[in-house]
Hints:
Blueprint: E1 7-8, E2 37-41, E3 44-49, E4 52-57, E5 63-66, E6 79-83, E7 89-93, E8 96-100, E9 105-109, E10 120-126, E11 132-137, E12 140-144, E13 149-152, E14 165-170, E15 176-180, E16 185-188, E17 193-196, E18 210-213, E19 219-223, E20 226-230, E21 235-238, E22 250-255, E23 261-265, E24 271-274, E25 279-282, E26 294-297, E27 303-307, E28 310-315, E29 318-321
Antiparallel strand pairs: 1-2, 2-3, 3-4, 4-5, 6-7, 7-8, 8-9, 10-11, 11-12, 12-13, 14-15, 15-16, 16-17, 18-19, 19-20, 20-21, 22-23, 23-24, 24-25, 26-27, 27-28, 28-29
Amino acid sequence: MKNLLTIIIVSIFYTNLLAQQNQEWKAFHSGVNLSSAIAIENDTMWIATLGGLFKYNLNTGSSIKYDRTNANFLYYEITNLVVDNQGNKWFGNGNFIIKYDGNSFTNFNAIDYGIPVYASLGRIKLDQQGNVWFAFDYGGLLKFNGTNWQSYTPDNSGLTFAGPITDFDFDADGSIWIGSYGYFLFNFNGTSTTVYDYNNSGILSHLITSIVVDSQNNKWIGTPMGLQKFNNQNWITYNSFNSGLPGNHVTRLSLDHQNNLWISIGYSDYLVKYDNVSWQIYDYSNSPVSADYIFADDQNGNMWFARYGNVYRLQNNNWLQYNNYTDFKLYT
């Protein structure tokens, strides 16, 4: 089961609207600069930014800003954001994790649960049981099951890797697949770690930019040299020479609820949707988005794309555009 709520890592700036033929655009404009994450929860958009956390009502356009002045934040800057199955918002910065239950903010220091002091919070994801997992660069993993915290580091577990973690995801057996930039691919089953490198696998690169696991338990791996699929036996490589990929530098992967794979191609305008049969390429010639937009879908199957102060929603093959303006401040 994939996350019911989706995270979109974004940078937001002002830009002009684009008009496309035979399409209906809907774009949300804000004055927030360098926003780091977005989560869609029903009719609410939660936005993590350099200046705090914003709650934006998609129906009315009203917004609330939470920061150090009115909430229990240690920093103004908020990185990462996920909403769990109980509606709690999880985000943080550095060693600190914050939970917002809709009424109050609670701070957690990851150091208290075994994460090294020099570690820095990266990706946050939910597993199939709804546990919240936090990846820390140079620190390992931290899990919260709703009651207890459990850290996984080289000092206290079979997780042998604690370097820079670019991404992670869970397979059907509950194992965690961890991508690193410079140290290949790791599989952690809770007790031991398997490293996939040039010596024992068909992996393309030691630079892993993104990883997702689909409903068939295939591992999709993004690298600067192309896209790979690993089914625990075979490695299949997709690149611009043997597939519909328009480029090889894969920077981000995301699976929607229909199991379509969305791919960002770096150093280009190309955003690609792959349905295991055909490759649909989006760029500014046929859409309002490009590869530098961050994306994911909500629980209703709508795709959301964010960048440059705009948020677009793709619904039933129509691009929808929000014209509501917010009172978000500009942070640089």
